[in-house]
Amino acid sequence: MDTLSDPDKADALKQAGTKDAGTNGNLLSVRDLRVSFDLQGQPLEVVKGASFRIRPGTVTALVGESGSGKSVISQCIMGILPKNGSITAGSIAFADPAKDGPVTDIAALLQSSEEMRKIRGGRISIIFQEPMTSLSAVHTIGNQVSEALILHKGVHGREAREQTEAMLKRVGFPDPHRAFDMYPFELSGGLRQRAMIAMALICGPALLIADEPSTALDVTVQAQVLGLLKDLQAEFGMAMLLITHDLGVVSNMADEVVVIYHGEIMEAGPVEDIFRDPQHEYLKALLAAVPHFDMQPGERLVSLRAAGSRPAPAEPAKTPAKTKDSGGAPPILSVQNIVKTFTIKKGSWFGGSEDQSVHAVDDVSFDIARGECLGLVGESGCGKTTVSKIITRAVTPDQGAVLLDSGDGKGQVDLTRLHSAQLKQIRSGIQMIFQDPFGSLNPRMTVLEILREPLAIHGIGDRAAQVTRVTELMKQVGLDPRFASRYPHSFSGGQRQRIGIARALALNPKLIICDEPVSALDVSVQAQILNLLKDLQSELELTYLFISHNLAVVDYMADRIAVMWKGRLVEVAKRSTLFRNPRHPYTQALLDAVPYPDLDRPLDFETIRARFGTETAMWHDVFRPQYEDGTPAQMAFVEVEPDHRVLVRAGAELSEVA
Amino acid sequence: MSDLTPPASASLPHYVNAAHFDPRTIEELTPAQERIYLASQWQLMWWKFKRHKVAVWCGVFLIWLYLVAIFAEFLAPYNLDARHIEKIYHPPQGIHLFSKDGFEGPFVYGSDYRLNMDNLKREYTVNEDRVHALRFFCKGEPYRMWGFIPGERRLFCAPEGEHVFLFGTDRLGRDMLSRIIYGARISLTIGLIGVAISFSLGIVIGGLAGYYGGVVDLVVQRIIEVLQSIPSIPLWLALAAIMPVTWSPLLVYFAITVILGLLDWTGLARAVRSKLLALREEDYVLAAQLMGADTSRIIGRHLVPGFISHLIASATISIPTMILGETALSFLGLGLRAPVTSWGVLLTEAQNINVVALYPWLMLPVLPVILVILAYNFLGDGLRDAADPYK
C-alpha cells in the first residue's frame, strides 16, 4: 500500500474521495477503481477503472475468468490487498446503513487502521472458496465463529456461546451444541462452508462478499449452500457481492450482474438484461462456452479462444457408436467386481487400537468399448478417483480384475496380476490426464523435457527423433512448438492442461483416463479443452474414461455414463437416456442440483432444502443399501430399459423402480 | 462511468463496453511477465535472492574470506611459525597516515620495550619518533605457496629490520594477524567438508526413509531421535578421545570433520524426508510412474530437483554449527592440536583469565568466528527465502 502509506497522497485521495464519495443511497459504490501490483519492480495494472454499485439488500454478481481482477476488487473492499498491490486511483464509497451517517471511502483508509478493522468482519465480511483451508485446524468451530462476535460486539461467555449456537443452527448444523466444540476436520466440506458462512454472518454485516463460495463444493452441496445464502440474504436483509465464474450460479442468485474482463467492466445490468439480451461479444462467448443438456448430438461448444493453430481435424471419422455392437468385439477395458478397502487405525493413547475399514470401491464392474467415452460421475469421496488409480495400478484392489485388451492380438491381460516389468510395457497403453494443471507438470522441467520424458523412459527413438515427436505433439494440442524451451509456470491453466494432454498422448495410448480434466479451468478454457479432447478422440481413435463431477461436461463428452455413489455404481446408461430418464434418486438429486445459466430453469431450492441432511431417508426403499436396522442389503442391477441399469435391492420388482 | 453507479432508487441501465474487444489480451504478457515466465528455476531463485541485500553482502563477504584463506601466504605479513623473541606479547599497532611531520602514507609507530619489575608485565610504549612506513608488495620471509610454490612477495611488510603487528603477538612472539589468516584455512574448510559428509548421509538416509516409508522410515526416525537426544559436547569428547594421539595433525583434521559430519546429518535427513513425503504426492510424480519411470528416475529427475534448493539452504545454515563445533573442540584441547592452526586452536591461548586480562588481543580470533557465523546465517536465510521461487 505505497500510495496509502504516503500521508500526503492518502489525504489527497481522501479529499477526492469525500468530494464525490456519496453513494446516492447505494450501500457500496465503486468508482473508477484502479489497482496495480508490483511484479519484480515493474507495475502491473490488474484493475483498470472498474465501477459498479451494490444496492442495499440485493445481490450483485461480479463475473469473470481467473485473472480478470474480480478477487482483487473484493480484497480492496475488505482492505486485505496483498503487500505488493496498491490502489492507484478511484474510490470505494461505503454507506453503512447502521450508522446512517457519513460515507466511508474504503480506498482511502489504511488497511491496518482502527476504522478499517471495525468495518472488516463487523460490517463487511467475506466467505472464501476453499472451506478446507479457511478455517483454523486448531480451534473449535464455536471458538472461530464467536471470535468476530467477541471482537466486534464485545459479547462474551455464555451469551456469545448462545448467539453462536443460534447462528450455527440457522446455517443448518443439526446439533449446534455439539458442533460448537467440534474441530474443522470432523466436518464435511459442506458443513465447513456452512461454518464459514456462520462466521461471516455472526455480526450481522451490511455486506457479505462471497468469493466463489460454492466452486470447491460438490454439485448437491453447492445447491444447498447457494440456497442457504439466498435465504440468509433475504432474512438478514443484507447485500451480497457474489464473485464467481459460474454463470449458472449467477443466474440463480444475482439481481444485478457486472461482467469483468482483464480489469475492465465489459457489460453490466439487471440479471434479466444480461441473460435474455447479452450484448457484448465477451459475454456472448462465455454463454456459448457453457455445456448444457439440450445440445444436439454433434453440436460443438464455441470456445472464446480456439486452441491455437491446430492442424485441421482430419475428416471426422466419428467413431460409430460402438456401444451397440460391443457384443462382438471385446471391450478395451473390462473392470470386474473390484473392491478396495482402506483401513483407518484409530489408536488410543494407551495402545489399544481399533481398525475401521472404509469401502472406497465396493464391487464395481463396467466395460469400456473401443473408441467409446465412458463418463464416471460422482461427488468427492465416492471412490471415482480410486477407480482410476486401480486401473492405472497406482493402487492394487483387494478383489476383482481389471482386464485390458491392448488390441495387439494377445487378448486380455489382468492388470492387477502384473509385475512391475510387465506393467511398464502395459502402462504405455493407458495414460492419464490430471485435474490440477499446476501440480501435474514438474515446475523444474521445460516443456521439451516434460514431453520427451515418456519417450526417453521407453527408449523410443534417438534424441532427434524424440524432439521431432515433441514438436508434433505440441502441434497436435495446438501449442506453438517454439514454446518448447519454456517452463510450465509461463503458461496459463488451459495451456498447461494441453501440455498434460500432449504428454498423455506421447506413448500412443489406447485408453486415456481423464480425471476431472477441466474442473480447475475457466468456462472459456474448459470449452477449448473439451473440444480438443473430442477432436483427438476421433483423430487418434482413443478411448476415454472421463471422470467428472460436472454433469453437463460429462453429458457433452460421454457416450455412456456411470453414476457412482459411496463406492458403488448406482446407475449406468447411455448419455441420452440417463439425463432424460434418471431412475435412481441419487442421479435425480444430482440433476436437480445443477445450476443452469438460464433464467427459465431456476434451481428448485425448496426440494434441495428438503433433501439436506436426509441422506437416503427420502429414497424409495428399493434403492436404500441398508435396512432400517442398519444391516446391509443385498444389492443388484436391474435393467430398466436397454442399456440402462440401476442398482436396487436384490429381488425388487421392476415396477417399483419406475 | 457514472451510468454504472446510478442512485439506489434507479435500476441499473444495461451498460455495454463499446471499446474494441480482443479475447486474447488476458493471455498476453507484459515484458516484465515475459521475462519472469521464461526464466528457469535457478534464474528465479537468483532474482529473488538478489533482493535480500543483507544475504548478498554476506555472500560477498564470505567469498572474500575464502579468497583470504586461499592466498594466506601472500596476505599474511609473517609465516605461521615466525617468532619474534624480543617482541613477546606485543600489543596491536594502529595504522596511521599522518605523523607530527605531516602526511607520511600508511605507517606504524615503533615501540619501546620495558619489563615492569613490579608485576613482571611486558610493557610496550609507542614511540612517536619512530615512524615505520609500510611497504607494499614487498619481499618478506620466503614461503611456499600452498606448500609447493616458492615465493617471498607479500601484500605488506614493515621496513627492513622493523616489525608490524596489527593484531599483536602471542606468548612466543608470533604475529596474531598472520596466525588468524592461516587459521581461516582450517576453520573455514572444516565446515564445508563436514557439511559435505552430513549432506550425503542426510540425502541418502532421509531419502530412503522418505521414499520407502514403513519400517525403514521407522528405524531411521528412531535412530535420529536417539542421536539428537545425546548432548553433543560429551559425544564429541567421546569420539575425539578415540583418536590415537599418534595420528598426524592432518589425519586428526579429517577425523574431526568426519565426527562433526556424522553427528550433524540428522537435521538434514529429516528435512529431506519431509520434503520427499510432500513431493511424492504431487501429480507429476504419479504421471511419471504411469509412464513407467523406475524409482531411481523418479527420485533423480523429479524428487531431488524439487528440494535440492531447500537442501542447499539448510546446508548453508548448518555450516556455522560445524565451525562452532570445531572451535569448541579445539578450545577444549580435544580437537586440533598445534602445530595445526585453526581459530579454535588460537583461542586455547586465551584459556587463562590472567592472560586475557593482561593481553586482551589474544581473544581476537573470536572476531572472525562471530563474523563468519553471522554471515553464514544471513546467507542461509536469504537462500532459504529464495529456495522456492514458485511461491
Overview of the molecule:
The complex is a heterodimer of chains A (658) and B (391). Chain A is of the alpha/beta class and 658 residues long. Helix content of chain A is 34%, strand content 24%. In chain A, the strands form 4 sheets. Chain A has an 8-stranded mixed β-sheet with strand order 16-17-18-13-19-20-22-21, with helices on both faces. In chain A, strands 6-7-8-3-9-10 form a 6-stranded mixed β-sheet, with helices on both faces. Chain A has a 4-stranded antiparallel β-sheet with strand order 2-1-4-5. In chain A, helix 5 (141-153) packs parallel to helix 8 (189-201). The longest helix of chain A has 18 residues, at 219-236. Chain A is globular, with a radius of gyration of 27 Å. The longest helix of chain B has 37 residues, at 176-212. The radius of gyration of chain B is 30 Å and the shape is extended. The mean pLDDT of chain B is 82.
Protein topology:
The complex is a heterodimer of chains A (658) and B (391).
Chain A lengths: L1 H4 L1 H14 L7 E12 L2 E13 L4 E5 L6 H9 L6 E10 L9 E2 L8 H6 L4 E4 L13 H13 L3 H14 L5 H5 L8 H13 L5 E5 L7 H18 L2 E6 L2 H7 L2 E6 L2 E7 H6 L4 H9 L43 E15 L5 E16 L4 E5 L6 H8 L7 E7 L6 E3 L5 H8 L2 E4 L13 H11 L5 H14 L16 H13 L5 E5 L7 H18 L2 E6 L2 H7 L2 E6 L2 E7 H6 L4 H8 L12 H7 L23 E7 L2 E6 L4 H4 L1
Parallel strand pairs in A: 3-8, 3-9, 6-7, 7-8, 13-18, 13-19, 16-17, 17-18
Antiparallel strand pairs in A: 1-2, 1-4, 4-5, 9-10, 11-12, 11-14, 14-15, 19-20, 20-22, 21-22
Chain B lengths: L14 E2 L14 H7 L3 H10 L2 H18 L1 H4 L20 E4 L2 E15 L4 E13 L1 E11 L3 E9 L18 H37 L1 H16 L2 H11 L6 H32 L2 H9 L3 H37 L11 H6 L4 H6 L7 H21 L5
Antiparallel strand pairs in B: 2-3, 3-4, 5-6
Helix pairs in contact in B: 2-13, 3-5, 3-13, 5-6, 5-8, 5-10, 6-8, 7-8, 8-10, 9-10, 10-13
